[in-house]
Amino acid sequence: MFELTMAKGSILQGVLEAILDLVNVANVDCSSKGFSLQALDTEHVVFLSLFFPSEVFRSYRCDEDCSMGIAIADMVDLLRASNDGDIITIKVTDQNFEDITITFESPDKTKTTDMDLQLVDARSHRLKISEWHDMESEYQAIFCMPSAQFMLNCKSLSVIDDDVVIRVNEEVISFSTKGKSGCVNISHVPNKTDNPEKASVTLTHMRGPVSLTLNLRYMKSCAKVSTLFDQVKIGLSTKLPLMVECKIAEKGYIRYFVAPKITE
Amino acid sequence: QPKQQVLSRFFSPK
Q1: Which of A18, A136, A191, A206 has CB atoms 3.0–4.6 Å from A202's, for a disulfide?
Q2: Over pLDDT 70: what percentage of chain A?
Q3: H helix and E strand count, chain B
């Protein structure tokens, strides 16, 4: 049996709302440690991997590891029907592994709403990626910035063109674009520390200068999720997709992997 | 014009 409860408007609900513009169906794995979700966008440019540790929920129970495909848009639609103050329970029982049950309970416990959502096949939404601690060392540059700044950069650039070039070296981190009507270049002089301050742009890992071209549509989606958190961490490598990460509590995370564009 | 790559270039299916 798997069962988690959360208050309406909790961070999981906010994240599910924010990933809707990229993701239809997601693969969810539950273990005693927490709730993880993986999904690919329909064009296979963005892979989303998130992990919510059990302690971020109001209550959490998972007797046996389970894996299921969930139609995220349908789930979000159901969750939107909850009222302020409701406690939301998501439950899968061992006897019935064809659907999940979502329950809303009003704060005064006088009203309960039960809904069943059919599970779907989401096996094609899995990708084999290395353990993160191995992978992080493969990035040529990793920096952190306030997520509001990241969103502002993406919005400012998308006025001019569909693409952004992100360049990182020891001295500067820049976001630039060039279109028919002009060009924009936003440069940040980074701090260099392992312990980034919340309000600044910090270069935490640097093995050499690197630049990548990315479609701003995907970057704006990543930025939308990141604004649920204070800081965003961005990793660049010429051999890996761009990584955009937000931390959830101590052990949790949301990671986007975005395939860059390449000049032929 | 730069061409969009897809993730299968970097990761294999599980």
Answers
A1: A191
A2: 97
A3: 0, 2
